[in-house]
Amino acid sequence: TFTFEKVKNDELQERAKDANEFIRLGEIDKAYEMFNAIYSVDQYNAQLLFNMAVLEEVGGNYEKAQKLYASAVNVDPDNKAIVEG
């Protein structure tokens, strides 16, 4: 079981909703593409980094997931969900 954080940037929430729909449908690659597109606009979004890390972990890319988790913690070290992720 994996938990995803909500992207809180209002401008990017619609894209994040689309990505979450792809997750719900089991289309992990498409969800990652959507999150990656958001990342190109908002590289300091801890929730987004966390979600990308989760998708990398689901895909078995543990080294990349670990780097993304670390980046998310660096951006928002006070977010308990991200730190515990």
List the helices and strands and how they pair.
Layout (H helix, E strand, L loop, with lengths): L12 H12 L3 H14 L4 H13 L3 H14 L4 H5 L1
Helix pairs in contact: 1-2, 2-3, 3-4
- Order of SSEs: HHHHH
In round numbers, the mean pLDDT is 87
N- to C-terminal separation? 12 Å
Structural class: mainly alpha
* Tally of separate helices: 5
Low-confidence stretches: none
Number of beta-strand segments = 0
Radius of gyration: 12 Å
Structural description of this entry:
With 85 residues, this protein is an all-alpha fold. The protein has five helices and no strands. The longest helix has 14 residues, at 28-41.
State the main characteristics:
0% strand, 85 residues, 5 helices, mainly alpha
Brief characterization of the structure:
With 85 residues, this protein is an all-alpha fold. It is 68% helix and 0% strand.
